[in-house]
């Protein structure tokens, strides 16, 4: 199975240093091993997706193991399905993707990680050569219809129609989203009235929801870890300098996590 050309949608053939389609559209492999399949005309900004700063904060925070129970829970679900072909959408710097590759050793033929952020993919590919990484948008997945057994999407946007197109009948989508109490205490520093995350379940036409798992645990963070957490969230832009200072000075910042993991089965 190969990538699709983002310009004409034919299959891309892998050559030593690039991918090329029958029409001659060519996409070079970067030295880190990833391929950039996001043509300029499909970009909505110069550097779409997470910035280097957000990505580095996320890497430091995830490397410290604070979200490991979420990764373990999804690994356990994936092991049950043993997908041959798996895609992680909005994979960021690859922490979860690499975890899936480890858990599925010997079960899965190929694992792809896709993100619109070039800097995140560069870091991911450099550290995790066991995964195929590409820069692309989840709104136009560079994969053929019905070509994937499973797709994971943790905290990342994606068009439902694209999921239905690429996942084969009987395949699964696993989503990870914030539960109502996720990062309540962090939000409490920024908002006078903390609103709980909405419990509304998204609809994924073409899929049937098969399993829901809610997991959460308390975290106790050192100042720099709490700063990294704030940096990797969408709340960062709201935080005034005194909030950053106060967080940095923390020695044991207590904060709750709350995640909802859902398994959706492709109909048909
Ligand atoms: C909140 S981060 C989650 C990253 C990773 N899954 C994790 O949980 O650590 C969201 C990711 O989605 C990516 N992203 C945003 N819009 C995207 C799009 N249209 N297509 C693909 N990735 C996108 C961002 O660059 C970022 O890496
Ligand atoms: Zn082409």
UniProtKB/TrEMBL annotation:
Pfam families: Methyltransf_25, Zn_ribbon_RlmA. Keywords: Methyltransferase, Transferase. Residues 87-171 form the Methyltransferase domain. It is an enzyme of class 2 (transferase). CDD domains: AdoMet_MTases. Its EC number is 2.1.1.187. GO terms for molecular function: 23S rRNA (guanine(745)-N(1))-methyltransferase activity. Residues 3-46 form the 23S rRNA (guanine(745)-N(1))-methyltransferase N-terminal domain. It comes from the Bacteria. This is 23S rRNA (Guanine(745)-N(1))-methyltransferase. It comes from Cedecea colo.
């Amino acid at each position: 199975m190969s990538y699709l050309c983002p310009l004409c949608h034919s299959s891309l053939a892998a050559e030593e240093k690039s991918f090329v389609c029958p029409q001659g559209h060519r996409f070079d492999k970067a030295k880190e091993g990833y391929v950039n399949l996001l043509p300029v005309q499909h970009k909505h900004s110069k550097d779409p997706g997470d910035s280097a700063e957000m990505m580095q904060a996320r890497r430091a925070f995830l490397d410290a193991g604070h979200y490991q129970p979420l990764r373990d829970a999804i690994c356990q679900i994936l092991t049950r399905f043993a997908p041959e072909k798996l895609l992680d959408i909005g994979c960021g710097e690859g922490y979860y993707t690499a975890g899936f590759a480890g858990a599925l050793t010997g079960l899965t033929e190929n694992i792809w990680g896709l993100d619109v952020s070039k800097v995140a993919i560069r870091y991911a590919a450099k550290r995790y050569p066991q995964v195929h990484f590409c820069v692309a948008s989840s709104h136009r997945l560079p994969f053929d219809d019905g070509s994937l057994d499973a797709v994971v999407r943790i905290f990342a946007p994606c068009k439902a129609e694209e999921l239905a197109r690429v996942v084969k009948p009987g395949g699964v989508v696993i989503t990870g989203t914030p539960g109502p109490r996720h990062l309540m205490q962090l939000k409490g520093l920024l908002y006078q009235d903390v609103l709980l995350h909405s419990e509304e379940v998204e609809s994924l036409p073409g899929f049937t929801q098969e399993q829901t798992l809610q997991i959460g645990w308390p975290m106790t963070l050192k100042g720099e870890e709490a700063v990294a957490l704030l940096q990797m969230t969408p709340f960062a832009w709201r935080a005034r300098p005194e909030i950053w200072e106060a967080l940095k000075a923390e020695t044991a910042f207590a904060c709750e996590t709350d995640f909802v993991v859902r398994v959706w089965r492709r109909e048909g």
